[in-house]
Design goal:
The chain is an alpha/beta fold. Helices cover 46% and strands 17% of the residues. The strands form 3 sheets. The chain has a 6-stranded mixed β-sheet with strand order 1-14-2-3-4-5. The protein has a 6-stranded mixed β-sheet with strand order 6-7-8-9-13-12. A two-stranded antiparallel ribbon has the order 10-11. Helix 3 runs antiparallel to helix 6.
Length: 413
């Protein structure tokens, strides 16, 4: 049975949305007189109420069978563009308000100084006859500023939901068995199949994976959020499994527990997909895949103990001469992998921050291993930005499919 929504998170989110809407309604009219008219106010509150209603329906009141149709996705786009745009707008207008106050103070001082100069009245009159003043021009242009955050929001929501890149990495290892030279691993992570990742998108992802001709596909957690889509998801993955020489391997994320871990576990165990839950298995000649569970804990110290316990279980019994690839949802396991000399670890969970500037996440939630490739000695760890998302907003951090080609490092002269 799918867990129902908790009333407390609903109230918190609704209060946040109401606060954002109220602040936007107060700030806009004060920013420029063009937004003070009744028509603009009616349009603003109409769009805001519609966006909130769509969000409530899409997150908590949607039918068990899913959304009414594919067309409803565009209403969801509108809702997120509007709400996220309001948040961006408040930040921009707050900064703009500070700048405007500073400019007005400087302008007032300049006017006072000019009036003290001979002939200043004549110069000011002449400027008025030539047309609008510089100040009037800038104030007129400032009326368009609130549109900029909405444009950025639209880019982040629509582009974040539609853009998908394939990132290819060729990695050389001195300990790689000759039989694994050229072995290719494809990784997808954090698809969060549901509101913004339907079967059409899963088909697109699997098609792109197949074009890379990997021997194996690994899924590093957070596969699904809408359990109504679990059966068609498993049908597609089962069919895709037969096209891969070594099949599909899976490790748990945190969202499997948020939804219904038992139901998802049953569906996976009935399929040919191999679930690595603090365990390992031989793949091909000389390759072992190990997978760890999500490290739930109360605090940082407890999590480190849980991670060490899970990691020890996951690699137990692997021959010393084997080449091991660790699958983990939480990127913190890279610490254990590096300490143990695991050649390659693949993680997800962070979504790369989703909103990046110059390659750095702007979100307040940060991780030691946030995004991309990390190396320690001869060991590599990769943190995927995710193939999907739970919030349809990506800026400077596109969703990805990751492909890793293993090569044997030639001896150094």
């Amino acid at each position: 049975m799918q867990h129902g929504p908790s009333i407390i998170p609903m109230l918190i989110i609704f209060s946040f949305l109401a606060g954002i809407a109220w602040l936007g309604g107060r700030v806009l009219p004060k920013w420029h007189e063009v937004y003070a008219g009744p028509r603009v106010r009616y349009a603003y509150w109409g769009a805001t109420l519609l966006a909130v209603a769509i969000l409530i329906f899409s997150r908590w009141l949607r039918p068990a069978g899913g959304f009414p149709g594919e067309w409803f996705r565009y209403f969801i786009y509108f809702a997120y563009i509007w709400i996220v745009g309001l948040v961006f707008m408040l930040v921009v207008l707050l900064a703009g308000y500070v700048v405007k106050r500073l400019v007005r103070r400087l302008a007032a001082r300049r006017v006072t100084a000019d009036r003290e100069q001979p002939g200043s009245d004549t110069a000011e009159a002449a400027a008025g006859q030539r047309g609008i003043t510089r100040r009037q021009f800038l104030e007129g242009m400032s009326a368009a500023i609130p549109a900029v955050p909405l444009a950025v929001s639209a880019y982040g929501v629509i582009g974040g939901d539609t853009q998908l890149v394939v990132n290819r990495h060729t990695l050389a290892f001195p300990q790689l068995p000759p039989s694994l030279a050229g072995f290719r691993i494809a990784q997808i992570s954090d698809t969060h199949i549901g509101s913004f990742f339907g079967m059409d998108k899963l088909d697109r992802v699997l098609s792109l994976v197949m074009q890379e001709r990997p021997e194996v596909l690994v899924i590093t957690g957070d596969l699904i959020d809408d359990l109504a889509l679990l059966p068609p998801t498993m049908e597609r993955l089962t069919a895709f499994q037969s096209q891969l020489p070594q099949g599909i391997f899976y490790c748990w994320g945190n969202h499997e527990y948020f939804r219904d871990i038992n139901r998802i576990r049953q569906a996976l165990y009935k399929s040919p997909i191999v679930v690595l839950e603090n365990s390992n298995t031989a793949v091909g000649s000389g390759l072992y895949l190990a997978g760890v569970d999500y490290p739930w804990s109360k605090d940082r110290g407890e999590q480190e103990m849980v991670r060490q316990q899970f990691f020890t279980q996951a690699v137990r019994g692997i021959p010393a001469e084997a080449f091991t690839v660790l699958l983990t949802h939480h990127s913190a396991f890279l610490d254990e992998a590096f300490a143990a000399g695991i050649p390659l670890s693949l993680a997800g969970h962070t979504h790369g921050g989703q909103v990046n500037l110059f390659g750095k996440s702007l979100l307040p939630i940060q991780y030691k291993y946030m995004r991309g490739m990390f190396r320690q000695g001869e060991s590599y760890g990769y943190v995927s930005t995710g193939t999907g998302h739970w919030l349809p907003l990506r800026i400077g951090c596109p969703a990805e499919i990751s492909v890793f080609t293993l090569q044997r490092e030639t001896a150094r002269v």
